[in-house]
Amino acid sequence: MSAWTVTVRTGPSVQRERADTLEHALEVIERETRAAATTTRLGTIDVRFRRFAPSEQVATRAELRGPGRWRPAVRAGIDVRGDGEVEAWTGRVHREVVAPERGETPYDALRRALQSTSVEP
């Protein structure tokens, strides 16, 4: 049984992939979101009383859950915004952005945040 689940959502499309290790799950997230970031460009959405700029929209979300299936200890991931920007986050109900440190990519920042929690089974 796989310890980690990666779910990638792009519009109505949902893909799930299982991984045995945290490192493999992070590789899947990076591969999928790098591909999405190079091709994603959304326009502004104008709804009756509010406008949503591309930077305020999530075009692709790659979510990592695990270890375990029923009560995963970790929920984290990468969002690709409508303008192609990439943002790492952690959390379940309330997502907190993981800010990259100097010289880090969002992928490195996510790795740092998850490896500091020592969640590998």
What report would you give on this structure?
The structure is a single chain. The protein is an alpha+beta fold. It has one domain (4-115). The chain is built from two helices and eight strands. The chain has helices at 22-39, 106-115; strands at 4-10, 13-19, 45-47, 50-52, 58-66, 74-81, 86-90, 96-98. The strands form two sheets. The chain has a six-stranded antiparallel beta sheet, covered by helices on one side. A two-stranded antiparallel sheet has the order 3-4. The longest helix is centred in the first third of the chain and has 18 residues, at 22-39. The chain is globular, with a radius of gyration of 15 Å. The mean pLDDT is 88.
Fraction of helical residues:
10-25%
What's the end-to-end separation, in Å? 12 Å
- SSE run: EEHEEEEEEH
Largest sheet: 6 strands, antiparallel
Question: Which overall shape is indicated by the principal axes computed on the Cα atoms?
Answer: globular
Strand order of the largest sheet: 2-1-5-6-7-8
Briefly note the structural class of the backbone.
alpha+beta
Q: Kindly state the number of beta strands.
A: 8
Number of helices: 2
**Proportion of residues in extended strands:** 35-45%
Summed over residues and divided by their number, the pLDDT gives a mean of 88
Nearest-angstrom radius of gyration?
Answer: 15 Å
The count of domains is 1
Low-confidence stretches: none
